[in-house]
Design brief:
By secondary structure, the chain is of the alpha+beta class. The chain has 6 helices and 8 strands. Helix 1 packs across helix 3 and helix 4 packs parallel to helix 5.
């Protein structure tokens, strides 16, 4: 087979040097293709490219006329597409991942009433996976493909605009009320990076508010501590003047302050019960000591 130079382009070479792969329907030079015989036909063959693994695998299924027309229409567009792509347990004819669009070439020969249930289950499964399914019929498939691509492009543009609007509204709501609870990531179908950006924005706006609240709480606790110290000093002075006063509730002061009040009251009562006790004088009698212990 004659060879050509690498710097030559498809437009300057004979058309027979380039063929479409039977699996991916892309145009390749003959040096990147292998010929495989079509099953049931002795003298017919088709081309399989190296990327489809046709060199070591069984020959691919011969594409139908409708599939070939859809591939030809897709080849004229700027979108990247894949033929015979598997989504879950189903295999679709053509998929455009950038648009999340699936083309099904359902001809009347193989897709009759008996396959309606299978086709419906396949379509529902693919749509649940996030793709839009377009059924291409035999009448003018190129126009159907072009119309579906244009419509899907407009739908995605509108969806992106709606998403940007909802994201802007969420940012404005966070800026108005930084302490509001953010919705879960799947509630408004925000992307993870956009949701994390909202969380970072909320955290940045919350820092001054939380700092003010912390300062306010610190001042409140300091004032409460000063009031408690003042109440403790007043109670301590009152108990020193009159040890017979009842002690305040323990919840008003700390444990250490309650111990100080209790010791002060006990010392004051001892001094009040022994007013005439003189260390240089005579010792108290046993009856006096018993009466003092009973009054303590």
């Amino acid at each position: 087979m004659p060879t050509i130079k690498d710097d030559q382009t498809p437009s300057t070479e004979p058309l027979q040097k380039y063929h479409a792969c039977a699996r991916c329907h892309r145009l390749f030079h003959v040096r990147h293709l292998r010929r495989h015989r079509v099953r049931g036909r002795l003298h017919d063959f088709h081309w399989v490219c190296r990327g489809c693994g046709g060199f070591d695998q069984r020959p691919a299924r011969e594409p139908s006329f409708l599939e070939a027309e859809v591939a030809k229409a897709l080849r004229r567009t700027k979108w990247k597409w894949q033929p015979e792509w598997r989504i879950g347990r189903y295999q679709v004819d053509f998929v455009v991942h950038q648009l999340r669009l699936v083309f099904e070439a359902n001809g009347a020969k193989f897709h009759d009433a008996k396959r309606n249930a299978h086709d419906k289950a396949k379509r529902d499964f693919v749509e649940r996976a996030g793709y839009k399914v377009v059924i291409v019929k035999a009448d003018d498939p190129a126009a159907q493909v072009d119309a579906a691509l244009l419509k899907r492009k407009r739908e995605l543009a509108d969806a992106r605009e709606e998403y940007s609007r909802r994201l802007a509204e969420a940012r404005a709501a966070v800026e108005r009320d930084p302490v509001m609870a953010l919705p879960r990531p799947g509630t408004f179908r925000f992307k993870d990076e956009d949701f994390n950006a909202l969380r970072r924005l909320q955290a940045a706006l919350r820092r001054p508010i939380e700092a003010k609240e912390a300062e306010r709480e610190r001042r409140r606790l300091a004032a409460l501590k000063r009031d408690r110290e003042a109440d403790f000093s007043a109670e301590l002075a009152a108990i020193r003047l009159n040890p017979g006063l009842p002690l305040p509730p323990p919840a008003r002061f700390t444990k250490e302050q309650n111990r100080v009040l209790l010791r002060t009251q006990a010392d004051g009562r001892k001094k009040a019960l022994l007013p005439s006790l003189n260390p240089s004088g005579p010792s108290p009698s046993l009856q006096e000591l018993q009466s003092i212990a009973a009054n303590l």
